[in-house]
Design brief:
two-stranded parallel sheet; globular; 17 helices; binds uridine-5'-diphosphate; 2 domains; 389 residues
Length: 389
Amino acid sequence: MYSAIPVESKATLMQIRVFDIALALIIMPVVLVLALVLGPVFLVKQTANPYLALCYSLCRIILGDKSFCGLNDKVDEVGSSVILKPALFSFQELHQTIGCIEMTNRQMIRYHENNLSLKMHITLMLKCITTRCLYKNKGEEKSEFSLFNIKIHNRTLQEAVKEIFSSDGSRCRSVFFVNVNSINLSFKNKHLTRDINCGDLVLADGSGVRLGAKRVNVKLKDNVNGTDLLPYICEALVARGESLFLLGAAPGVAQTAANRLQDQYPGLKIAGVQHGYFKPKENASVIEAINRSGASILLVGFGSPIQEKWINENKHQLKVKTALGVGGLFDFYSGRISRAPIWMREIGMEWIYRLAMEPGKKFERYVIGNPLYLFRLYFSSRLKSKGVA
Ligand code: UDP
C-alpha cells in the first residue's frame, strides 16, 4: 500500500509517527487518571466517559491506525489517501469551522499530502486546539436562527449546493451570505436587514457569525461563504451541463475570473460576464443579457448592501435558477487581490491580511467594525435567537 509513497514522504511519515507515539505515551497516564477519577461522575450522569474514548484513540495512535492530525474519519474520503490517516484533529474540522479555503475536500487532501511535514502536523494540531477553545459550542443544530434580527439558515456546504440547484426554474431564488460586515451595515441600513431576510437561503459566513451563533446557543454546521461554495457550484455546473453568469467588479475583472475558473474546471460553461459599474438606465439591458445567456446560476459581486438590494429588486425579472450575492469574490478569483496564506485563513485571521493589503479601504470595516461587532454581541439587547428546530 505504501509502495507508491515517495522516499522523502516516507521520512516525513516516520518523523510524524515518532512524534505521535511520543505524545500519546506522554498524555496517556494523565488521561487514564482522569478517566478513572471522573468515571463515577459520568456514570451518575449516564453519559459516555470522553476520557475513556480518548484513551482508546491514543491506543490506536500508538498502534499506528490513527494519528493526531490528518483526516476527519467521518468523511467519505478516508481511504482515498495513502498518506493521511484518520485523526483526532483534522483539516476538515478547521475548514468547517473557519472556511475561506476555496478548495473542495478532495483538493484539500491533495494539498495536505503534498505539503506534509512535522511542522505542518504540529501547527495543524495547535490550530485545531485554538479553534476548539474559541468556537467549541454545545448549542443546538437549529436549521434556522436569528442574529440581530437577521435570519440565518444553518447548512453544510453540500446542503447549500443542493438547495442552490433545487429550484424548478419557476422563479429566481436568492442566496445571501451574512458576515460581520453585513451585520454591522444592517445597524445603519434597515433596508439591508429587510433585503437579506427576503433571501431564500441566507448562509453564515465567517468566524464572527460563528461566535454570534455560539452566543445564541446555536451550533453551526459549516462556514458557508461564497469563496468556499464556488468550487462545489462549478463542479455541479459541469456535471449538469449548466452555465454561470458573472455580474460585478471593475471592468475586466469578471472576465479574468471566468477564464481562471474555466482553467480550473474543464468543461465549465460561462454564459456571460458584465462589470458592476453600469448606469441605472442600462439595468434593463443587463437583465436581458443575463436572461438571453441561458445561465442557470448568477453570481452578483457588487458588495453589501448594493448586491442584496439589486437582487431583491430584479429577481422577478431574472430567468436564472438562483442569484447569489458574492461580494468581492471576482477580485479574488481573478487574482486582482491575493488571498491570505492558507495557514492564516485556517485560523480565521484572513481579515488581518486584507487589512494589510488595503488599509485605507478596510480600516473602518475591520479595525472599528470587528470590536464594535463583539461589543454588540456581548452587550446589545437586540441579539436574540428565534430558532426553528
Ligand atoms: N462593486 C461593483 N459595483 C459597485 C460597487 C462595487 O461591482 O457599484 C464591486 C467592487 O468592484 C468589488 C465588490 O463590488 O469587486 C465589493 O467588494 P468588497 O470587498 O467590498 O465586498 P465584500 O466581499 O467584502 O462584501
